[in-house]
Amino acid sequence: MLAGSIDGAVIATILGEWNNVEFGALGNDVMFALAYLIVVGSLIAYNVYTWLLRVAPFGLVSTYAYVNPVVAVLAGSFILSEPISAQLIAGGGVVVAGVAIMVTARNRALARGAASH
């Protein structure tokens, strides 16, 4: 992520994109969101993810990728009062149900395997 950020900054500099950025238009909410994504979204989440990879089954840990967008929508609603539409609720329900089915099926398969040994 750091290398991608540096590369993006270099490319923006080469293309002269910095002249188009209105830093004065970046409010406190934007700066808070950026700081939050850097600290929580990158540093903390990455460390937790790598720890989980060591202590939990990969199939279970990989479900985070499906659940993260649902958590982000809920956080946006609670923190920034962003509206949640019926489509978002339906989509979130499909995601959560899919993850639940995957975890349940995996646990059943593990239980069957343990019972046969």
What is the molecular shape? Answer: extended
User: Low-confidence segments, ≥5 residues, pLDDT <50?
Assistant: none
Care to count the β-strands?
Answer: 0
Order of helices and strands: HHHHH
- Averaging pLDDT over every residue, what do you get? 86
Query: What's the main sheet like?
Result: none
Assign a percent range to the helix content. Answer: over 70%
In whole angstroms, how far apart are the ends? Answer: 44 Å
**Strand-pairing-aware structural class:** mainly alpha
How many domains? The number is 1
β-strand amount:
under 5%
Explain what the structure shows.
This protein has 117 residues and is mainly α. The protein has one domain. The protein has 5 helices and no strands. 0% of the residues are buried.
What are its keywords?
about 120 residues; mainly alpha; 5 helices; about 80% helix
Offer a quick outline of the entry.
The protein is mainly alpha-helical.
Please write out the topology:
Layout: H1 2-14, H2 28-55, H3 58-61, H4 64-80, H5 86-116
Helix pairs in contact: 4-5
